[in-house]
Here is the input.
Amino acid sequence: MTEPQIFKGLAGVTADTTAVSKVNPETNSLLYRGYPVQELAAAVDFEDVAWLLWYGELPSESEAQGFRDRERASRALAENVKAAIDLLPLSCHPMDVARTAVSVIGANHPKAEDSSPGSELEKAVELFAAFPAAVAYDQRRRRGQEPIAPREDLGYSANFLWMTFGEEAAPEVVDAFNTSMILYAEHSFNASTFTARVITSTLADLHSAVTGAIGALKGALHGGANEAVMHTFEEIGIRKDEPAEDAAARARTWMEDALAQKKKVMGFGHRVYKNGDSRVPTMKAALDAMVKHYGRAEILGLYEGLETAMQEAKNIKPNLDYPAGPTYHLMGFDTAMFTPLFIAARITGWTAHIMEQRAANSLIRPLAAYNGPEERHLP
Ligand code: ACO
Here is the structure.
């Protein structure tokens, strides 16, 4: 018998087709339903991108208006979701809270087990609309602050920031947040999306698939990297008002030491892109805008010091999590909240994939090459 070929980590394996997004590592490009992601980030709101990922086309004016009205009316968190969050200890990670919140939102849904396309879309829209309230609720509870109700007069990003911080964010901050949401929205068969598709392939419900995807996203090799990036910055030391060159010099030394100790530095490298993540230039521009807005040149110093030292030593480039982490830090989010922000964005891509998987389903069940003991018997 010929030995089966093993593709460790499924690296290089094409598992299925998808029309949701196209990642092209050769040209470093990422298309959502055909549109380059940087064009979308420059021109439309995250709400439009959500619609695009679900429906395959950007919304017309009347569709966009109808969708915004629906989204704004579905933002409030159910009382039992708040109660479930309150039961969780502050010592647990916000990703655990996010996972629990989605699970309870699913349990509440009257059409939880109805997987018809109309019902799946309805659930996707409602989850997209309500999830930010769970993140904001948890961020505020961790700071001992009262929750803030959503505002229907604000767009998705402005309202997210309002519910979290209780003040209206400056337009450039809203823009940077909107950009991050669009860039995080979708990325083909990454680990969490594939998890969502595996769960969907068993005919389980949409909220189970999203809950499982959150578990996959939590890890530092995937979504958890945006949080880990900030831990690196914190370990090096963030010194407000330090000249950027001094911060960069300290960051370079830190990176040289880390690489000498063969450490993996989070926020760098990518399984698919080998010449740079297509999303980084757009997110870096958003970070630059935030550095300018908040007057925090030392953050840019740390960023560029680490990036240059990694480039010189290993020619490994940053991924999206690298500029996203410090951007969220400057906006005022606690570091542990960064990956839940990623969820808020990726709910759109996950649910688009869940619907695509559902429409042409085949149970995902690979084989394993057994390498345990030969058959043996009890004495
Ligand atoms: N820091 C240091 N060295 C690295 C890094 C890194 N971040 N990434 C890759 N390398 C090195 C490895 O040590 C290895 O070197 P070697 O051949 O000398 O042993 C080589 O590059 C190949 O690394 P692999 O881990 O085999 O590459 P793979 O394609 O499997 O990994 C991954 C991709 C997991 C993303 C990896 O680059 C990594 O661990 N990065 C840090 C985590 C991270 O930032 N994840 C976010 C992903 S993007 C996202 O979720 C938005």
In short: The CA atoms of residues 196 and 210 lie 6 Å apart. The pocket of acetyl coenzyme *A is lined by residues 221-223, 225, 264-271, 314, 316, 319-321 (CB under 6 Å).
